[in-house]
Design a protein that fits this description.
alpha/beta; Rossmann fold; 286 residues; 5-stranded antiparallel β-sheet; 27% helix; 7-stranded mixed β-sheet; 14 strands
């Protein structure tokens, strides 16, 4: 079963905003298309930038506009562990995307090894061909189902980041106890786990059953869980892509950062060369 983000919405969109959004939609030039057993992939380019899409959904890419310059904004939340523990030496990324995050983390952390797991066979060549991805000797690529990898690997990591998607949403296996048990098995005692999940923008509304149950599941598995609401990222997206000052659809990225160690987030200055993290830190949900 697939968790479909738009089905998690608690509120209907304003029809006038939807009409304006459709009116301001920017034409795209398709650079490449792939169909695999798992995704319908396209690499597209428009006046804003170049992007990786699964079906109709933007997964990663570069934005170059007057409103914002950089990667898709929600990806910046994945840099927060650098503020928590700048001495992370080994990391696991599940869901490769365009490879932007891999190169960013390699610049920011003293990594000795970086394992990257993805089920999509085309994704690594796409990153190199279209998104300037740079390979290094630290990287180890594994073409495999993430849960199989987590079950079979004997490695333990300082940092695990999971950002997975199919064409329509997220596999419900990534919302279950078995999955979190496997994450715990592969995480060091003071390790940090970062997960990207969809939610209604009103994350802590009691009616938001999906988010409520998922957060409870995380808190049952980790001593400390911080929830970041992607509202700032949403606002940048709608302003940049559609010239709208309001968010249209009631769906957001819910970033869960979990650990059994209590970290204090301190900006050590290193992030300035990559991205201004401060607007995203202000999105702290709890």
């Amino acid at each position: 079963m697939t968790i479909i983000p738009f089905e998690l919405a608690l509120y209907e969109p304003d029809e006038n905003l939807v009409e304006l959004m459709e009116k301001n939609d920017i034409p795209e030039n398709i650079l490449e298309e792939y169909d695999s057993d798992f995704h319908s992939i396209s690499v597209v380019e428009n006046k804003i930038g170049r992007f990786l899409k699964y079906k109709d959904t933007y997964q990663a890419g570069y934005i170059n506009s007057n409103n914002y310059n950089g990667n898709l904004p929600y990806i910046n939340y994945f840099l927060i562990p650098v503020l928590m523990n700048p001495k992370i030496e080994n990391a696991l990324l599940v869901g490769f995307g365009s490879g932007i995050l891999v190169n960013q983390l390699e610049k920011l952390l003293p990594l000795k090894s970086f394992d990257i797991v993805d089920i999509e066979e085309n994704i690594f060549s796409i990153a190199s061909d279209y998104f300037n991805f740079k390979k290094s000797k630290k990287q180890n690529f594994v073409l495999q189902d993430a849960l199989i990898y987590l079950k079979t690997t004997k490695k333990k990591y300082d940092l695990i980041i999971v950002d997975v998607a199919c064409d329509d949403g997220i596999d419900e296996r990534f919302c279950e106890q078995e999955y979190l048990s496997l994450i715990k098995k592969c995480l060091k005692k003071d390790g940090v786990f970062v997960s990207n999940m969809p939610s209604s923008r009103d994350i802590f509304n009691p009616k938001n059953k999906f988010a409520f149950e998922l957060i409870e599941l995380y808190k049952n598995n980790f001593s400390f869980v911080d929830i970041y609401n992607g509202e700032t990222s949403n606002k940048i997206f709608y302003k940049t892509f559609f010239n709208l000052d309001e968010v249209v659809y009631d769906v957001t990225n819910m970033i869960l950062i979990s650990s059994d160690k209590k970290y204090e987030i301190k900006n050590n200055g290193q992030l300035d060369e990559i991205v201004d993290i401060n607007p995203y830190l202000k999105d702290l949900g709890n």
